[in-house]
Design a protein that fits this description.
Blueprint (H helix, E strand, L loop, with lengths): L5 E8 L5 H11 L17 H6 L6 E8 L5 E8 L7 H9 L3 E7 L6 H12 L3 E7 L8 H12 L7 E2 L8 H11 L12 E10 L3 E10 L2 E2 L3 E4 L5 E3 L2 E5 L3 E3 L2 E2 L4 E5 L13 E4 L18 E7 L5 H13 L5 E7 L3 E8 L2 H14 L4 E3 L3 E2 L1 E5 L4 E4 L11 E16 L3 H10 L3 E8 L2 E9 H5 L2 H8 L5 E12 L1 E8 L2 E2 L5 E4 H18 L7 E7 L2 E8 L15 H16 L1 E4 L2 E4 H8 L3
Parallel strand pairs: 1-3, 1-4, 4-5, 5-6
Antiparallel strand pairs: 2-3, 7-8, 7-16, 8-15, 9-14, 10-11, 10-16, 12-13, 12-15, 17-19, 17-20, 17-21, 18-19, 22-23, 22-24, 24-26, 24-27, 25-26, 28-29, 28-30, 28-31, 31-32, 33-34
Helix pairs in contact: 12-14
This protein binds guanosine-5'-diphosphate and magnesium ion.
Length: 597
């Protein structure tokens, strides 16, 4: 295909605004997929992605379109991950295309993820086509939403296309706009090969399948290629395009998007954003802006049943095959036994992996409180990355601690603004910006990531009745008064409950934790002190009073069945107990204690 007849684009949208449905309609209207093979949300491959309506890996589809001018075009759609956790992946796939459809639900308006994604598109110099979706609904308000796009995003929305991805109205106009308003790619077929590694996924039959965008040169089967960042070399054994199923082609030239396989063993060997060139005739400079993605949120994953440790190892290793941004190392905890300390790109990433282990591998998990990566500066001048609060070095050797900060953007209807400001303030936030657009406010806060990883999103949803949208990016590290808080039960430290907290908030957190544990730990034959401490200093304390162990003592009279039931319950509960010195703590207590509210 000549470059002038190729259009590469992505779709940016807030979740639920209709990105997947629109992609389905574009595929359907162009007969890319036979009617009988058409299923909903064609591009969201994994079940879990379908259910949650999120995309984690970039997916792509090549669409052949005969325009109204009679010309044949090739349209390549890259469906980028829509969530902030995968911001780097999004920015790379944006650089693989020249334009974007900006889909906004015309019954809702611009939301936080619309903004985050559209800024990425603008940064990648995209031509944008605003699409106002869901016009079949009575609440659709085209004028208001078009105005909002102009006010909030600052782009011309006069040519916005009214669409119903549900009924198919406006789809033809959208295809024509792609052809006429998006620029064709540029590139030189005779120059040395320069291709971008957009994403990769593991296929059990083919090994690693690499999604590529060719900038210059031509790629063919049998070619010897080099990854410029990793230095690794491979021979291409398959080359093709997605329609959306894999279809082999002879070669890929400038402006084209497709896949290669090259006997690559694991996704870890491929780096999103790397430049692929020929070994024999390499290009001079790699594509700019490569940076590896690093995990920012860590937590421990432990099997509820310690007999399942090996199955958990197996599950984690398999998942890591397909996800280079997920890291893990073995961890053992007195409270929870053997498990893994795992690193993730963000909270959603964590949830997705945890869900997949529980569902696809059928392992019940205990997840410890998520913690961010702290930079601990020692008095000797060295710096340690702290992934687990339990490993915090002795304070006498520590000079200071830095924590990651984020820039959070929140869009919220005016009436809930006060609650949102209060929530951000309570989480040590610093207000950066506050603007109004229509009946909505947009607030920007500088917040510590540590205050957001717990339950910020849930709290935000509850104080705004679900009407706020939220997005964030990590801005850097800053020093603050951060200390490790330990929990001691009957004078024994319980490592699984250690956490990093801000000094000013330590008492409050400590008190809450002790109160909670007092309710969660069953009484013993002796008195049990429950304490929170920083260094050697106790900052909160509760005492669980002693009790006779015979649980049936509670029943007066002779109700035998009730007595029996209680004894059975006690027996079942025993299985899931952990021993701390003389104290037995039910596993459930850890899980509940780590849930902050
Ligand atoms: P995504 O999260 O942006 O991929 O959104 P989806 O494509 O999954 O759509 C979210 C929901 O909106 C689904 O229930 C769709 O059926 C519905 N939806 C999408 N487009 C339209 C539309 O044009 N009209 C109506 N009424 N519903 C739509
Ligand atoms: Mg979707």
């Amino acid at each position: 295909t000549p470059l002038s007849h190729i259009r590469n684009f992505s779709i940016v949208a807030h979740i639920d605004h209709g990105k997947s449905t629109l992609a389905d309609r574009l595929i359907q209207m162009t007969d890319t997929v036979a009617e009988r093979d058409m299923k909903e949300q064609l591009l969201d491959a994994m079940d879990i992605e379908r259910e949650r309506g999120i995309t984690i890996k970039a997916n792509t589809v090549r669409i052949d379109y005969t325009a109204e001018n009679g010309e044949q075009y090739v349209l390549n759609l890259i469906d980028t991950p829509g969530h902030v956790d995968f911001a780097y992946e999004v920015s790379r796939s944006m650089r693989a295309v020249e334009g974007s459809l900006l889909v906004v639900d015309s019954t809702q308006g611009v939301e936080a993820q619309t903004l985050a994604n559209v800024y990425q598109a603008i940064e990648a110099d995209h031509e944008l086509i605003p699409v106002l979706n869901k016009i079949d609904l009575p609440a659709s308000d085209l004028d208001r939403v078009a105005e909002q796009i102009e006010d909030v995003i600052g782009i011309d929305a006069s040519g916005a296309i009214p669409v119903s991805a549900k009924t198919g109205q406006g789809i033809r106009e959208t295809l024509e706009a792609i052809v006429h308003h998006l620029p064709a790619p540029t590139g030189d077929a005779s120059a040395p090969l320069k291709a971008m590694l957009v994403d990769s996924k593991y296929d059990p039959y083919l090994g690693v399948v690499v999604l590529v965008r060719i900038m210059d040169g031509v790629m063919k089967k049998g070619d010897k290629i080099r990854m410029m960042q990793t230095g690794a070399t491979y021979g291409i054994d398959r080359i093709g395009v997605f329609r959306p199923e894999m279809t082999v082609v002879d070669e890929l030239g400038p402006g084209e998007i497709g896949f290669i396989t090259a006997s690559i063993k694991q996704v870890r060997d491929t780096r999103v954003g790397d430049t692929i060139t020929h070994e024999k005739r390499p290009c001079e400079t790699p594509l700019p802006g490569f940076k590896p993605s690093v995990p920012v949120v860590f937590c421990g994953l432990f099997p509820v049943d310690s007999a399942e440790f090996e199955s958990l190892r197996d599950a984690i290793e398999k998942l890591a095959l397909n996800d280079a941004s997920f890291s893990f190392e073995m961890e053992s905890s007195a409270a929870l036994g053997f498990g893994f300390r795992c690193g993730f790109l963000g909270l959603l990433h964590l949830e997705v992996i945890r869900d997949r282990i529980e569902r696809e591998y059928d392992i019940d998990l205990i997840t410890t409180a998520p913690s961010v990566v702290y930079h601990v500066y020692m008095k000797d001048g060295s710096m340690q990355e702290l992934h687990n609060p339990a490993d915090m070095p002795d304070l006498t050797y520590v000079d200071h601690v830095e924590e990651p900060r984020i820039k959070a953007t929140i869009l919220v209807p005016d009436e809930y603004l006060g609650d949102v400001l209060k929530l951000c303030q309570d989480r040590r936030g610093i207000q950066m910006d506050l603007t109004y657009a229509g009946a909505r406010a947009m607030v920007v806060y500088d917040l510590p990531l540590n205050e957001v990883v717990f339950d910020f999103y849930d709290r935000l949803k509850s104080v705004t009745k679900g009407y706020a949208s939220f997005d964030y990016e990590i801005t850097g590290y800053r020093q603050d008064n951060l200390v490790k808080m330990q929990v001691l039960v009957n004078d024994e430290p319980v490592d699984a409950l250690s956490m990093m907290v801000h000094r000013d908030r330590a008492e409050m957190r400590g008190r809450a934790m002790c109160e909670k544990l007092k309710e969660l730990i069953p009484r013993h034959m002796f008195k049990i002190p429950i304490q929170a401490a920083i260094g050697g200093k106790v900052i909160a304390r509760e005492t669980l009073s002693a009790m006779r162990k015979d649980v049936t003592a509670k029943c007066y009279g002779g109700d035998v069945t009730r007595k029996k039931k209680l004894l059975e319950k006690q027996k079942a509960g025993k299985k899931k107990m952990r021993q701390f010195g003389k104290v037995e703590i039910p596993q459930q207590a850890f899980i509940s204690a780590l849930k902050m509210d």
